Amino acid sequence: MEKLRTAVNQIAYTPRSRRWSALSPLQLSLIPLLSLASSLYKLALSFRHQLHHFGLLRKNRLPVPVISVGNLTWGGNGKTPMVEFIALWLANSGISPLILTRGYGGADEARMLQRHLDGTSAKIGVGADRAATAACFIDRYGHINGHSVSCFERLCYEHDRDAGSHLDSDKIGVAILDDGMQHLSLCRELEIVMVNGMMPWGNHQLLPLGPLREPLSALSRADIIVVHHADLVSEQNMKLIEWTIREVAKFLPIYFTRMTPLYFFKVGTSFKLPLESTHNRIVFCVSAIGFADSFVRRIEKMRPLHVDRLDFSDHHLLQTEDIDMIRVILQKLQAKFAAKPVVIVTEKDYDRDPEILGHLEPFEVWVLCSKLQVIARKGCSGDSFMKTMGRILEMKYMTTCKHNLSFTT
């Protein structure tokens, strides 16, 4: 199954013009079947949107504003780091956020968020029915009354950190919908769409032939578009990405982000290591994330002596046979370089199953800790991103409140 996923992933990110030279005979034989499945997916997607458009499928509205963080392609777009970034910003501004996540793939992302946001007012609700999950948390903690408290206008001003100190920090003020773009059953006031700058659209085909969960025209539903891994993208490719976005959404604000490495910590201990610890080391990157290339590229920038890698499909849970395979590779690397290699994984891989990584002893396993950072580009910055979010959230939520009030009366 893992080999099949890898084969399909390569098809999805290979341009049509390079198929015959880049794909194996087996992969080429899969294309007609994948193409048929993609056509059926397109029909189902269109039918679902029509049902929502005509009100035949119910849309739930929460009593607090909803920020959706989503994407058009599978994995590696920076959704979860952006969710954490927004949650910390809100919590630091005196507004308690509720993160709503499906908990897909063993809830590794939810566990990572819980670890990072521990000690803040942020709450994390896990469940496929995000509206029901939100209702449980709102019943338990209460919520800020948006009709009487305009608490979002000040989010336009990053320096005004104490303006929300009068609010009840335990009451939920905003819900953040993780991977929310295709979750049409929940209304939202702000739609943020993340784009993987290193591999934005693949072969431009819908699932499963390509990586697109919706056509590129769906970008028109966004309020803000964020190009992630922008620091690893050439200027020429960046201009092409911006041009593609502008073809669909001419006037939408575009921001740019990166993952900034902070430090390593050793599995089994709380011991932190500086990033320079990789210098002249033999490094073996093991990951089961949506887009491993960005992880490996950042490790390579730390100037280790040699970097090798093993990629599993997103959310893959390591098994005993995987550990045995990793151990064999490590022993070969040790014999080749006459030095003990170190295994490096992402936080998401660590939180999926921390204990199994300890079975790689006597080899050390390090976890790379990073945070999302907004890159200054074309007048855009972290401050302007926050101000734009605050303005849109305030404007749309107040409009919704006025509409509901007039509809009620």
UniProtKB/TrEMBL annotation:
Keywords: ATP-binding, Kinase, Lipid A biosynthesis, Lipid biosynthesis, Lipid metabolism, Nucleotide-binding, Transferase
Top-level EC class: transferase
Pathway as given in its UniProt record: Glycolipid biosynthesis; lipid IV(A) biosynthesis; lipid IV(A) from (3R)-3-hydroxytetradecanoyl-[acyl-carrier-protein] and UDP-N-acetyl-alpha-D-glucosamine: step 6/6
GO annotation, biological process: lipid A biosynthetic process
Signal peptide region: none
GO function terms (MF aspect): ATP binding; lipid-A 4'-kinase activity
EC number: 2.7.1.130
Gene Ontology cellular-component annotations: membrane
Domain of life: Eukaryota
Name of the protein: tetraacyldisaccharide 4'-kinase
